[in-house]
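Please fill in the sequence for the structure shown.

STRUCTURE ENCODING:
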């Protein structure tokens, strides 16, 4: 969710300030598309006046958003939305930016052809963004991530769960299990992890407590299998660039390239 929001807000800001900026956004599901459309509407309504371009066309059925010049005579910026199953990427010229949201969850039967078509449509020196949550190692998202680590062109970004201040629980918070209330004793693994926490004023124990509570929640779905619950947590809430790819549930890694 964080990466989807970030990249669409970045694209949206470029559209408002950069005449002729064209964006193609590929969404994995209609549900996520509706969320993004609502998010863009809210962002537009709350933008500073000096930055807010004038809407020329906003059609949720055609899945298009256009901005016009101040004189109202020419459409200059365009964002189109399409399904991961479709090769119809809208109209309006060659995109400067393509966003493929939740890339690991694209059906393999469509993924390779889709990516090839998008790369062919992209402007020279344009920006191709893959973002999403890990889904094991048997997909193009993982392969691209690994290629970047090995020196291929591109940038990869991983957002670790402990980098968000809100991912913390105090001992007296509602819903905290009795075993995690009060002062905590940390395991050796937890101490090593805590050494990587940012120095932002959030107590170490509050972050560890959040981690334990989330693992406990996953253990419900794994029928008490704590190893599986830990693996699921590490994919949903990445702690490093390796373990987040090892489970097959949902996850939270952000990558672009």
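FILLED IN BY: designer on duty
SEQUENCE:
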């Amino acid at each position: 969710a964080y990466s989807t929001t970030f990249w669409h807000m970045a694209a949206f800001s470029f559209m408002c300030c950069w005449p002729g900026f064209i964006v193609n956004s590929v969404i994995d599901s209609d549900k996520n598309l509706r969320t993004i459309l609502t998010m863009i509407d809210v962002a537009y309504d709350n933008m500073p006046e000096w930055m807010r371009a004038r809407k020329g066309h906003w059609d949720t059925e055609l899945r298009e958003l256009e901005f016009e010049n101040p004189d109202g005579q020419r459409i200059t910026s365009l964002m189109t939305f399409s399904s991961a199953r479709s090769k119809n990427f809208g109209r309006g010229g060659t995109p400067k930016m393509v966003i493929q949201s939740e890339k690991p969850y694209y059906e393999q039967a469509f993924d390779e052809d889709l990516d090839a078509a998008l790369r062919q449509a992209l402007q020279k020196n344009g920006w191709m963004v893959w973002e999403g949550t890990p889904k094991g190692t048997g997909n193009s998202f993982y392969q691209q991530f690994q290629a970047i680590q090995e020196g291929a062109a591109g940038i990869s970004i991983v957002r670790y769960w402990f980098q968000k201040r809100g991912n913390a629980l105090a001992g007296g918070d509602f819903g905290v299990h009795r075993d995690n209330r009060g002062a905590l004793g940390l395991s050796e693994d937890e101490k090593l992890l805590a050494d990587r926490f940012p120095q932002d004023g959030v107590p170490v124990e509050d972050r560890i407590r959040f981690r334990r509570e989330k693992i406990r929640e996953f253990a419900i779905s794994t029928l008490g299998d704590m190893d599986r619950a830990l693996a699921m947590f590490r994919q949903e809430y990445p702690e490093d660039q390796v373990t987040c790819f090892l489970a097959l549930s949902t996850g939270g890694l952000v990558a672009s390239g």
